[in-house]
Specification:
Elements (H helix, E strand, L loop, with lengths): L2 E9 L5 E10 L5 E10 L6 H15 L5 E5 L6 H10 L7 H13 L2
Helix pairs in contact: 1-2
């Protein structure tokens, strides 16, 4: 099963930085499914590295690293650097196809 993600960061009314990670996947029957995996409070800065570390933690917690495919995000300026931070983290193992797809995505927007 291939798993795709929507990732969004926002500030709550009480000034907390909240990162939402949603998993999207297709069942064998062809039915599209969505599941919120995490609503995480970011400790520290809104940095790309901090966001990537939180996403990696979620992916590792669910043991789905080898199923990761696409990330869908808004146009916040730090999303490209967050993807680079994901790629450079050694605790998340992407297969070569996923790595190529992510690099193609980054190339489209640079």
């Amino acid at each position: 099963m291939k798993i795709h993600f929507t990732v969004d960061l926002w500030t709550s009314p009480n000034s907390l930085a909240i990162l939402r990670v949603i998993r999207h996947y297709i069942l064998e029957s062809g039915l599209l499914q969505h599941l919120t995996l995490a609503l995480k409070e970011l400790d520290g800065a809104y940095s790309s590295e901090n966001q990537a570390a939180s996403i990696i933690e979620v992916i590792n917690d669910y043991r789905i690293a080898l199923k990761v495919r696409y990330f869908m995000m808004d146009n916040a300026s730090n999303n490209n650097t967050m993807i680079y931070a994901l790629l450079t983290c050694t605790s998340l193992l992407f297969d070569i196809v996923t790595l190529m797809l992510i690099l193609e995505f980054i190339a489209l927007f640079n």
